[in-house]
Amino acid sequence: MDRTAAPNRPEDTLLQAHDIGFAHPGHTLFAGLSFAIGPGLTLLRGGDGRGKTTLLRLIAGEIAPTAGRIERRAAALFFEVPADPAHDAVIVREWLEARQQRFGGWRADTASELIEGFGLAEHLDKPMYMLSTGSRRKAGLVAAAASPAPLTLIDMPYAALDAPSSRLLTRLLAEAAAQATRAWVIADHERPAVLTGLRLSVVDLGD
């Protein structure tokens, strides 16, 4: 079944999911899911346990669907989880530098602006484990925005952010919604109210 509108021009499609499903033994998260992702902003919406994070991992290629197939046309994608315990001992500055080295065309000016805007400058020389959940999320958002990857995936972008940072993120997502060559895919329980009025596609996994 189709869960979202296709891009305006088929040639702009960065990813196509064909009748995909994912199941654990004895439990199906979703089945028969077909959608296309093109430039702009896409919301993966679903209640707790409906498979939002799993779908992001499928899109990223970290795991494979148990049914159907995913066709990726984007040359590169960005999907990072700074809250992963594997990053706990890494200095924030070094974590960002590693992402800069991974992606050619890193937008250093964007990174600097967002480090200032998110109030991360004072945390750059701390290991990740010393940061709050919100600050770790901010580090991920800095890297996502500075990366030139044509496909960017973010899980629960607003979770644990303070009000000024939420406003800055909303500005970033408004810019993402207007992108002609780059796609941002965010996963959340509902469409954030602050995104009302923005043009976005929705993949609905149900409640």
Q: How large is the share of residues in beta strands?
A: 15-25%
Radius of gyration: 17 Å
Mean pLDDT: 93
Intertermini distance:
17 Å
What share of residues is helical? Answer: 25-40%
Model description:
The structure is a single chain. By secondary structure, the chain is an alpha/beta fold. The protein is 29% helix and 24% strand. The strands form 2 sheets. It has a 5-stranded parallel sheet with strand order 5-6-7-3-8. Helix 5 (163-177) links the parallel strand 6 and strand 7.
Key features of this structure:
3-stranded antiparallel sheet, 207 residues, alpha/beta, 5 helices, globular
Task: Describe the structure concisely.
The protein has about 210 residues and is an alpha/beta fold. The chain has helices at about 50-60, 90-100, 110-115, 135-145, 165-175, and strands at about 15-25, 25-35, 40-45, 65-70, 75-80, 150-155, 185-190, 200-205. The longest helix is centred in the last third of the chain and has 15 residues, at about 165-175.
Topology record:
Layout: E1 15-24, E2 27-37, E3 40-45, H1 52-60, E4 67-72, E5 77-78, H2 92-102, H3 108-117, H4 133-146, E6 151-155, H5 163-177, E7 183-188, E8 201-204
Helix pairs in contact: 2-4, 3-4
